[in-house]
Design brief:
single chain, about 100 residues, mainly alpha, 5 helices, about 80% helix, about 0% strand
Length: about 100
């Protein structure tokens, strides 16, 4: 009886683990997400450099303007990016990569 119970628990755990690796279709794939996040970091740095040149510049507005440019380059939307980002935060093993 103990072996049967152990087997059932093992099967349940294996099924649960295998489903976590599947990324939904509406979520940006990891390699593409990596490129977008990298470009957003570059956009933040560019906004900072622009702020140093023009102290009257609204940093937040400049960052959002550059983010929109990054999203356009990668053919995605702000909503899809943030939905994907939230998905990866909920899945730490995928988020780490």
């Amino acid at each position: 009886m103990k072996q049967f119970l152990f087997f059932i628990i093992l099967v349940c755990l294996l099924c649960a683990c295998s489903e976590q690796n599947e990324i939904p279709g509406d979520v940006i794939q990891p390699k593409q997400m990596e490129k977008i996040v990298w470009d957003m970091l570059l956009a933040d740095e560019t906004a900072l450099q622009n702020k140093l040149k023009d102290t009257a510049l609204n940093m937040k507005a400049e960052s959002f303007r550059l983010y929109d440019h990054v999203f356009a380059i990668h053919n995605t939307s702000r909503e899809r990016f943030y939905k994907s980002y939230a998905y990866y935060q909920k899945h730490p093993l995928l988020y780490k990569s």
